[in-house]
């Protein structure tokens, strides 16, 4: 990895909590705990617009398939999802239904559908063109993590508080049972003297690689997991970073990202470091089973002095951003 910092932006007074690129990779949008939305032009390398959301708060900013429009989750007043035009700072539509804090929000990569997950409540499927939800999966306890596969046909729901499983749904049959359930068991999370299955750090997000073959499970602790997307094969335990431990604040999950080729995972850390893991590096042989699938960073970058809560690789251009209270772009 030969990425180097190209530009620093100091638009926020509190930590950046979410980040997304548009489909072309030309624009980047962020959310911050200071209740602001910031838009950046990645080609020109400049800050483009500031929008405040003081009344409703803001988290999980996500571009639609138009670089002028985003959806995001409220953090104050209610749990409504908001569809906003960045062009004129006008709301296009509201999506009401969640009664608990929304902790996951993802656009379909191929259509106007999107999915949202609320803690201790459930997952809802929506369409940008109508205000009512299309489907609902009840989850009474826990924090649902959601992700679309690259085809947009499969929606994965990670349920760490339900025996550490990822359920795969056919989006065309969302009201039916999952067609596959993956068990993500980490037998090395605690010494063998503890009850099985060992307790894992709280999951905060799941992400498919661009080839659709692997799923990255981000946790609030000192380990992330890479699993096969369609069986129970645990490929890697990613270690060597310091977990953010911010799950109680209903944050987290934005600090990891796949590179577009699916070979590397980039992740932030409590100590401000950026860590790069090579998923295809040969695994060493070891008599200790955990070491046999443990991967440590092959490269680190040090640009932040506070916890790095946001990391995102550009889907279309060779660049990356990371954020604490400042945003750094790398090329």
Structure characterization notes:
The longest helix is centred in the last third of the chain and has 5 residues. The chain is built from one helix and 29 strands. The strands form seven sheets. A five-stranded mixed beta sheet has the order 18-19-20-21-25. The termini are close together. The protein has one domain: Methylamine Dehydrogenase, Chain H. The chain has 331 residues and is mainly beta.
- Arithmetic mean pLDDT: 93
Instruction: Tell me the radius of gyration.
Output: 19 Å
For the largest beta-sheet, the strand count, sense and barrel status come to: 5 strands, mixed
Provide the succession of SSEs: EEEEEEEEEEEEEEEEEEEEEEEEHEEEEE
The CATH C-level class name: Mainly Beta
Q: How many strands appear in the DSSP assignment?
A: 29
WD repeats: 95-129, 257-280
GO molecular function, one term: chromatin binding
Subcellular location: Nucleus
Main location: nucleus
Task: Quickly describe the structure.
The chain is mainly β and 331 residues long. Helices cover 2% and strands 46% of the residues. The strands form 7 sheets. The protein has a 5-stranded mixed β-sheet with strand order 18-19-20-21-25. It has a 4-stranded antiparallel β-sheet with strand order 1-29-28-27, with no helix packed on it. It has a 4-stranded antiparallel β-sheet with strand order 2-3-4-5, with no helix packed on it.
């Amino acid at each position: 990895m030969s990425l180097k910092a190209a530009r620093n932006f100091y638009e926020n007074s509190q930590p950046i909590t979410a980040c997304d690129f548009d489909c072309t990779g030309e624009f980047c949008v962020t959310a911050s705990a200071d209740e602001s939305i910031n838009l950046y032009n990645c080609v020109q390398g400049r800050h483009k617009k500031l929008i405040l959301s003081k009344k409703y708060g803001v988290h999980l900013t996500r571009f639609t398939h138009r670089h002028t429009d985003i959806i995001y989750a409220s953090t104050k007043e209610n749990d409504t999802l908001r569809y906003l035009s960045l062009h004129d700072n006008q709301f296009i539509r509201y999506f009401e239904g969640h009664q608990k804090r929304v902790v996951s929000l993802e656009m379909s990569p191929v259509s106007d559908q999107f999915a949202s997950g609320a803690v201790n409540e459930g997952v809802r499927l929506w369409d940008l063109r109508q205000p009512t939800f299309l489907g609902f999966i009840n989850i009474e306890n826990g924090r649902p993590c959601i992700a679309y596969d690259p085809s947009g046909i499969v929606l994965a729901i990670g349920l760490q508080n339900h025996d550490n499983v990822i359920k795969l749904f056919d989006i065309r049959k969302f009201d039916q049972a999952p067609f596959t359930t993956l068990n993500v068991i980490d037998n090395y999370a605690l010494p063998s003297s503890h009850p099985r299955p060992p307790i894992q750090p709280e999951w905060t997000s799941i992400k498919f690689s661009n080839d659709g073959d692997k799923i990255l499970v981000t946790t609030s602790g000192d380990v992330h997991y890479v699993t096969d997307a369609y069986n129970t094969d645990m490929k890697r335990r990613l270690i060597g970073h310091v977990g953010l431990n911010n799950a109680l604040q209903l944050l987290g999950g934005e600090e990891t990202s796949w590179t577009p080729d699916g070979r590397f995972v980039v992740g932030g850390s409590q100590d401000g470091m950026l860590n790069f893991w090579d998923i295809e590096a040969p695994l060493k042989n070891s008599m200790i089973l955990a070491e046999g699938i443990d991967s440590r960073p092959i490269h680190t970058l040090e640009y932040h002095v506070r916890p790095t809560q946001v990391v995102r690789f550009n889907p279309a251009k060779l660049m990356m951003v990371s954020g604490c209270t400042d945003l750094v772009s790398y090329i």
